[in-house]
Design a protein that fits this description.
The protein has 356 residues and is mainly beta. It has 1 helix and 30 strands.
Amino acid sequence: MLFPSLLPASVRFRPALLGLLLLSFCGAAQAKPRPHYAVAGNEKPVALLHAGRATYLVTERSVFRLEGKEFVRKQQLAQSIQCAAVADTALWLGTRAGVQTLSTATFKAHPLPLPGSDATPGITAVFRDARGAMWVGANGQGVFRWANHTFTQELHTPAINGGVATADSSVWIATSIGLSRKQGTEWTRYNEEGVANHEIPDNIVEKLLPDNAGNLWVVMSDAICVFENNGQRGAAEEELPSVKFIGRPGNEVMGVASVPGAGRLFATAQGLLLLPNEPAGFASFAPSTDKVEPKRLLVPLPLLPETGNPTLLQVDQRQRLWLVSHSGVTVLTNAELRRLVATRATSKALANQSTR
């Protein structure tokens, strides 16, 4: 059964995202996962962080460290945690009441007040840039960089929804009036109006999702686009691959990972959706056209035992895929994931043959 997603003809597409507009559901198949790590509390996952040999899971109230075969709670906060990052020997937690740092040795929490009249605002972004500097985004106050043991304000835009850094030394800030990017000392703003040809489909940028292939996925209130890691990010006139949604209207996208040899995997409210690599012999797409060509299919992957619906995806340096949900953490080797995808694709092909 196919569920078409309709877009106006004026929307322009690039090949990388054409397949996101059809969803195919067939019979489920399962691959054997690696041991599942249960996590106490059933709390919303916020971040999975790796530092050397240590792995930390931050949820909306707690900080866990992986010790042997279990995640052990090391700290529990009264304030709701909204974002987190790791830097050297400290965890940085962005809460609804300001920034907290935790020593990875003692796990004692220390507040880190921001300058200004409201020293404990709601924090919506905490991240480390490619040069090792820490950045904090505070809703209502703007963006700050931590240097020489003090905060320096970098951006005064008040409505901050998120922020990330990419390997090319860029800093990206999601706001309700567009997307801001810092390269070197210069800020560039992308918005719906396309000032100086820096255009994105929507001004309300809700979240930024970098994947392990160096791409940055920009999730907006009414569209999704991607800055591809293909050496053309700086070309202002380059049209961004964009779609209206993934799977169906209103489907929330929470994470994305590039799976070598398989395609792109999305963690969504509908579950795990795979956009396979284009099959051999598949009709090519013109890169800049208003015509919607035949589309690739999103393949829904079955939920693995005990995993639940993952909300975080992460590929580590060993090419293992970490799936994080309210109920716990499951880790798949690349071989296990490719086996799952291949089995799923075979089931879909057999189902398609049976309907002919």
